[in-house]
């Protein structure tokens, strides 16, 4: 017996029983089941499994929302989304919800076992159906989203001045262009850096390029 306690969540009993049989044959301990996302939360609270294998699309509450709530309450519980969906958007949404793995339902038994062992070891597992750089792409999207959120904190005037700075203009040149004092420009520059957590002009320019405010050329 493998000392990993599993919970299965799927709205189709035949699917749960099929996976239960496969996993128990492999030596895993399937300690609980649930038929929808809402029930999954209640059952998880009672049995606190090591790993939850969760369907994405279910009645009453989707697996992704259920995963988000379970992860918030029990961060140590590992969750593998098991689904028919091969759209990368579902992977990103699952990872945002805190899922540790994403597996397509027609996967081989060996892949299911590998997914469980991978997430238990603290790593993320993504089905072989997807490109190997999927996690790297997700990371880039998250970073871009964070940068966009920071940018939205700037006032319209600060955004305007950031663009001028990124284009290589001096404070004096910007002041002349906008009919304001050099000191005002420098105050705006300081506010921009403070809001973005950036401390030098070179990094400010790099930031503007990364979010597409100015061209890298």
Label this structure with key terms.
217 residues; alpha/beta; Rossmann fold; Arc Repressor Mutant, subunit A; 2 domains; six-stranded parallel β-sheet; elongated
Q: Unreliable runs, pLDDT <50, ≥5 residues?
A: none
Number of discrete domains: 2
**What is the CATH T-level topology of the largest domain?**
Rossmann fold
Q: Roughly what percent helix?
A: 40-55%
Mean pLDDT: 90
Rg (CA only): 24 Å
The largest β sheet comes out as:
6 strands, parallel
The CATH top-level class label of the largest domain: Alpha Beta
What does this structure look like?
The protein has 217 residues and is an alpha/beta fold. The protein has two domains: 126 residues, Rossmann fold, CATH 3.40.50.2300; 73 residues, Arc Repressor Mutant, subunit A, CATH 1.10.10.10. The N and C termini lie far apart (60 Å).
What's the short story on this structure?
The protein is of the alpha/beta class. The protein is 55% helix and 13% strand. Helix 2 (37-47) packs parallel to helix 3, helix 7 crosses helix 9 and helix 8 (171-178) packs across helix 9 (182-196).
SSE topology sketch:
Layout: E1 5-9, H1 13-25, E2 29-34, H2 37-47, E3 51-55, H3 63-73, E4 78-83, H4 88-96, E5 101-104, H5 109-120, E6 125-126, H6 134-152, H7 156-166, H8 171-178, H9 182-196, H10 201-210
Parallel strand pairs: 1-2, 1-3, 3-4, 4-5, 5-6
